[in-house]
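Example record

The entry below shows one chain as it appears in the dataset: sequence first, then structure tokens.
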Amino acid sequence: MTEHRLGIIMNGVTGRMGTNQHLIRSILAIMKEGGVKLQNGDTVMPDPILVGRNAAKVEALAQEHGVERWTTDLDAAIADPKDTLFFDAASTNLRADLIRKAIDAGKDIYCEKPSAATLEDAIELYHRAEKAGVKHGVVQDKIFLPGLQKMKKLMDDGFFGRLLSVKIDFGYWVFEGDWQEAQRPSWNYRKEDGGGIILDMMPHWRYVLDNTFGNVKSVTCMGRVNIDKRWDENNEPYDADADDASYALVELEGGAVVNIFASWCTRVRKDDLVTFHADGTHGAAVAGLTKCQIQDRPGTPSPVWNPDEPQKTDFFSTWTEYGADMEFDNGFKSEWEMFIKHLHEDAPFQWNLREGAKGLQLAEAAMQSWQERRWIDIDEIAE
């Protein structure tokens, strides 16, 4: 048995998502477990080099977690032939140019979504990577959530009968930053920096729908800028001009309708920060990040509308938890392991740059719908 080294250029991992999900809970966790096991008994051991623009931040991150290599010189890192995989979790607006540079240097590509700031760039990256013969993947973490994996199994088992509708309810209150620190970075709320909830979340909804419930056929959407003044990380006020809420309807192949509510300006009164409620002719399910509740045909209550008396039925008690004994690893880590196996033994990995482009396609269609106040059909992206 042989241990294979995988040199990974990890760009933009000083941010919250890059640090927590990709570095700590994925790459470092894989290293602590002895690497990724291949079918032939060999292992692949990641060897990351952390890259960031702020030397103090990236050095501190490396020292805190025992990572030996770090740099602020991205060009030099990409030029190093010993590191063959380029990973990017930095600014959306910069991503396309960085991926182009890495592809042209012969690097395999793995990146956060969206894979670019525009659909045109996302499609061009896919074709460039295919022409260069490098392998490529885009993070699609939500489908690896325990709650959605349980929902997917219900779909595959035919639990719902004919799927009628899906309701996605996402969001929480993101503080403005004046009297309480904001939980999200300020660039999320500036158009010029690639902010906006439609661009951020529609790529997620695209792969969730395509992989779990059915292929997306068309969309209509409306966005809003509810909070137009926020305070940044330096406690300086700025104009928040990017949409912080969106309201969309999506039609799936097969006829099911999806209602998507996404907002950073809503107070939580639901099972989780995001819930996926699927209704079918034979049953329904509601999944959060980890749990999944079901209600089958025999267990469906028969409520009576009576506005003159308080509701006596405890509807929450009529649902049953599904898959409580199922165990799943961290979703980001699971996808990293799948992609590393794809690199080293050509294991299947369908979530490539073409799939990433589909996320931009839905985001741009949603924004076009908002601007033109109409339904937008979703066409197939050419191979």
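Notes for this example: Residues 142-329+362-372 form a domain with the Dihydrodipicolinate Reductase; domain 2 fold (CATH 3.30.360.10). DSSP finds nine helices and 18 strands in the chain.
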